[in-house]
Amino acid sequence: MGEFAIGQGVSRFEDPRLIRGGGRYVDDIKLPGLAHGVVLRSRHAHAKIESIDIKAAKSAPGVLAVLTANDVKAAGYDDLPVPAGLKRRDGSPMYKPRYPILAVDRVRWVGDYVAFVVAESLTQAQDAAELIRVNYEELPAVVSTAEAPTPGAPRVWEDCADNICFVELIGDKDAVEAAFSHAARVVRHRFVINRVTAATMEPRGAVGDYSAPDGRYTIYTSIQRPHPTRTELAKVLKVPESKIRIITGDTGGSFGMKSPIFNETPLVLLASKLTGRPVKWISTRTEAFLSDAQARDNVTEAELALDKDGHFLALRVKTFAAIGAYLQHSMPAFMLNAGTLAGVYRTPAVHVDITAVFSNTNPMRPYRGNGRPEAAYVIERMVDLAAAEMSIDQAELRRRNYVPPSAMPFKTGLTFTYDSGEFQKNMDLAIELADRKGFEARKAEARKRGKLLGFGISNTIERAGAPSTEGAEVRFDRSGSLLLFSGSNSQGQGHETVFKQLVCDRLGIDPIDARYIQGDTDQVFYGEGTGGSRSATLAGSAFHLATEKVIAKARVIAANMLNVEESDLNFDEGVFSTNKTNRTLSVKEIATAALDLANLPKDMEPGLFATAVYNAPVNNYPNGCHICELEIDRETGKADITRYSVVDDFGTVLNPMLLHGQIHGGIAQGAGQALMEDIHFDGAGQLVTASFMDYTMPRARDLSDMEVESNPVPTKTNPLGVKGAGEAGCVGALPAVTNALIDALSEFGIKHIDMPATPERIWRAMQPK
Hints:
Elements: H1 15-19, E1 35-41, E2 47-53, H2 55-58, E3 63-67, H3 69-75, E4 106-107, E5 113-119, H4 122-129, E6 133-138, E7 164-171, H5 173-181, E8 185-197, E9 205-211, E10 216-221, H6 226-237, E11 244-247, H7 264-275, E12 279-282, H8 285-291, E13 294-306, E14 312-324, E15 349-358, H9 372-390, H10 394-401, E16 410-411, E17 417-418, H11 423-433, H12 439-448, E18 451-461, E19 468-476, E20 482-486, H13 495-507, E21 514-518, H14 535-562, E22 570-572, E23 575-577, E24 585-586, H15 587-593, E25 609-616, E26 623-633, E27 639-649, H16 656-675, E28 706-710, H17 728-744, H18 759-766
Parallel strand pairs: 1-12, 10-11, 14-15, 20-21, 27-28
Antiparallel strand pairs: 1-5, 2-4, 2-6, 3-5, 7-15, 8-13, 9-10, 9-12, 13-14, 16-17, 18-26, 19-20, 19-25, 22-23, 23-24, 26-27
């Protein structure tokens, strides 16, 4: 298909519709009789609920219902799902708390769910919510991840004395201890990886519509996993899945945050059932800060053992990871990415000790990278710290320890087995792209302007396309137009574009004649959804398999219509031809002809369509080298990124334009956390960064131009040879930006500054002690 072929930088088909205001987000849903809901949230981080008086609210103008935990109980709904199966340090089962839809007897963070008010209008619901009188007995709260498991800390859950949910031990502890015992050098450091939030462009929202005649629930909401969410929601509502339809339209960002069932989903459905009206809830921006699941928030102690020549012998890591007040579904999945700690290095032995702790704060969950950026940050910072201690150039120390291509497949010291990659080549190409040779001249020029210039390297790797399945359907209609149904849900990645490219290129169909459908559990036959950089690998491979099935059937029909053997047919750019006749048949022509039984072999079903479910049995491992150049103002401590270079390996590149967009966005999020983003609670558990006035988000002016080039080493673990790309920008940026920052400050003897490295923190670090 030429300009639309795989590997071409095709502009997004979604964009003209979205730019012209044709998007359909949750708040765009307007159903007949629509009512509006408002959540009354806790103002305390920890308190007993002595009583709730809703009389005044129920009699307020326009109010249709006021729901409390008693109404949820009367409806027979279950709690929200909570994962299980993990252990505590002594081998006993993990502490598994309830996750109620509305608080029953206690609230456990500022923003916890107390009541739900439904009214004719949003302002009426807001006014009525203020009339609810809740009598609280305030209790001590703990908000610090480091302090939560210490003796005497307030208990988030009364019967969990140490606030520890579970402990996970990964790696060979004995081998690590042995390696440390004969190490020539041991480098140690404590890292505080701060808490951030997704801050999606479109806040969360839900519209619930209950149909009394057939007892069916329809929910319009922006989520990543419609089909798995339907399964989980059916358990909460205690109804068959067939009684639930989930519709997800356009989604303005998610990054993992919108993946689970939030409390508002069953609340709008219950409210719709009780009022007989569809009910909408849309989060405000401040409410999003108070109620969205948050991310990161780790305290890590790391130790790297080296021999006298700088070869890595072992890595030992101990991490306290925040859970928040409740344990969200899939939250423990971050541990599956602990293998990123091994990096791209030959370190023989690695051991990780992870303790997950409760605190009186927002629940935590996977956020872009889901443990990968944190792990990459730890290992790449440790490499730079070791290089500084041993007076070895940071690039040279990495060269001494890289896994070479000849060692593939390579079993790392921590869970992962890499199938392919050219790690040193990535760095060498990136160093050339970043013009390291000219760095000293640029540094001298910056010094004349009162600036400190730093050069930071991060050569990271991650797992993607985790062992799982995904579905896709390719269907031609009677006119020969093409319908594509995807189980993988886009939140801005450009799925419509790349999947149209993949299918239309192979079938010789103009993408204009193809329609892409996602996010409706009544239309899409199967799906596992988006997350973990899995869409290109799983959904792309599912479309590939479905397309091959269509071609195989079309070949049989073409042979029958042309009266030749299948082996006589050639297929190229969507057209079947043969040297035994001058006739040709396009796939589109065959699709129309396939509905006429006269054109089909005996016993063949009419129509040209196919479904496929692709199973990825193993991970793939995207990798790459990020180099950040950053300057710091001596007078103010302000840090500015001046140059950013990336060489990545995502295997087969399906659409370089979309790929670069993913990398750019990820870099912005990583750099944002490194330099400015920070969720902060005061000692009483009050969130003091609950708006964009206090939570600093990166803007375009905070970033430099980004040069991105590829060093693709296609993987053999999937039919397309692709490696996941969605999270890699964030994984590489977090350590690259910080390494550049510390390199710039090296003349002050500064070895580390915890995130976010705000101008104030940097300025204070530069002051004489």
